[in-house]
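**Protein of interest**
===
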Amino acid sequence: MILAFPPELLADDSTYRALADLPGDGRTTDQRPDAAMRRRDAAVEGFGHWRSHVESAGPSALDPLYRRAVELLGDRPADWLDLLAGDPATDLERSRAQVEELWSPNRGRAAERLADSAIRSRSLLPATRNMGCCGTLGTVIH
């Protein structure tokens, strides 16, 4: 993911990474939020910048942002296929099976799957949360 900072903060990799990547002592709500707040503020400022450009010049005003985002990714996408093959693919197949069961004449299996869900027995708001781009991140546990 690349954050839509203002152009001057996207200009070179080190400036972007210094703001976008949270330091080790600022990644959870138990730690210092300063870096996450700076990142958030820069993203809000960038959103305003890019939005005003789109309003005046149309969607093509985002082309420089898109080109720069691809450059800033570097080799990070190399790990994405493995990531997608894990939990998201499993969750997608689980959801697909659930929809098929809900659509079938015998919906008993769908009810069993719902009853087995761990979501009902675990908090989705743990005391310590990871810092995200627009707040904190929680984990949904199946």
